[in-house]
Amino acid sequence: MPERAMGRRQVLGIGGALGLMAASGLSISAAFSRRPAETGAELRSAVPLPDAFRVPLPIPKVLKPVSSSGGVDRYEMTQRAESAEILPGLRTPLWTYDGTFPGPTIEARRGRPISVTHRNELPVPTVVHLHGGRTPPESDGYPTDLVLPQEWQEGHGMHGMHGGGHKMSDPRAVVSRLTREYKFPMDQRPTMLWYHDHRMDFTAPAIWRGLAGLHIIRDDAEDALGLPSGRRELPLMITDRAFGDGGALVYPTVDPTLRNRPGVRGAYLAGVLGDVILVNGAPWPVAEVDAARYRLRVLNASNARHYDLEAIGPDGRRLDLVQVGSDQGLLAAPVTHRRLPIAPAERYDVVIDFANVPVGGLVRLANRLGSGRTTDVMAFRVARKAADESRVPRVLSTDIPTWRRSDAVRTREFSFRAGRMHGEHGWLIGGLPFDPARSDVKVGLGEVELWRLVADIHHPVHLHLVGFRVLSRSGRTPLPQDAGLKDTVSLRPGESAEIITRFDGYRGRYLFHCHNAEHEDMGMMANLEIT
Prior knowledge:
There is one protein chain. The chain has a seven-stranded mixed sheet, with no helix packed on it. Strands 1, 29, 30, 32, 34 and 36 form a six-stranded mixed sheet that branches. Strands 19, 21, 22, 25, 27 and 28 form a six-stranded mixed sheet that branches. Helices cover about 5% and strands about 40% of the residues. It is mainly beta. The longest helix has 7 residues, at about 30-35. It folds into three domains: about 5-35 and about 400-530, Immunoglobulin-like, CATH 2.60.40.420; about 70-225, Sandwich (Immunoglobulin-like), CATH 2.60.40; about 230-385, Immunoglobulin-like (Sandwich), CATH 2.60.40. It is built from five helices and 38 strands.
């Protein structure tokens, strides 16, 4: 390692508080000793649940631009309350993007800018974040950059509140009323992103009520690879929910209006899990497929539930899941899995080959971390033999950054742990809860840094703006699913991970945080200033 790089290296941390802190209602020491497969508590539905693999897999509609003049595709989307039939025969009230759950998919081309004007007709403020986007700060969806409803009155928790009604303000917040235009340059590798609400303190219940959708970026090089495409490319947004009497979603919020007091009831402080698995908004659906290769664009959009996916054929044997991409696009070369763990906010791009499954055969996408009904996710029924000209090339991409440890100008360490926040339970980074008015990390534009992340229990850690590479886990080599460029890394109980990235793209204020949405709402975010 060059002497100059070693001389500039520093070890930095937020707050420096790495001690384990006891949390009311939550035994962290017990979580350590058990190394549980899940973090959180499960809600139970109050209505009869449908049999698995009866509802056809829906595919979210693709949104059409309202104009494409001047080299920019312009979209419009309305956030509004709607109801939908999720469980057969029942109507479920939802908060939606353009009336559907998931929201409509946006299809973009690399290097062609888009803009999306959102209109907020919901009863609370909202913020839109394009997760994984290389986005200027004014369009990144900072949690206090609110879009207020038309009739919203000042003083209704404008900039968010933390436990016990502790008011927090943000002098830099950019607040608009009714509408906001978000601009996305699309200057990034082709991949599947997702957009969701990011309002401070209330992200988790807003996503739970339906505010999430897909955003896919493509380019000519990826199109030329010959991967399965068209109707043989299936986007799969996996979520879990629970349903009350009459079909309404249930969620253990302390303030059902989502106007003033954030947080969830005590049993659910570590995260909210549902007992119904939805894919693209349908319970345990089935997709009719050809006996051919399919490309599955998989997103875990659950608040807190982790999955360990495997595809089980009618003979009980597992089919290969050939990973071709990660959060931030194509891998250098395919990685073959039999099981694929996926944490909240992670995305995996996988190819599965149904060629050897007999016509009429059922392939289950199962969850090894589930119990009872949550062991099933969805199924594929092979309907017919068919020609297949697709392929999985041995070389997928040559543009993945190759940062080395010696490139890092400094090393930082961050602990993700439970603790006390304004006298109540919270989730902290470096011993501190989120404060939008505080500066946590400053990094120069273009600098490479190495971060060491340390967890008490499960924490999927997400960085805004940049992708990163996973260098190690608890001092050992990364896991097979860590390949490629990531924007979310799944930390398991008691685990540490080293990641490396270059902070390029834009100057301004961004975030990093845990993407367990309940942890995020209870303080587990920090500010990242690129200067």
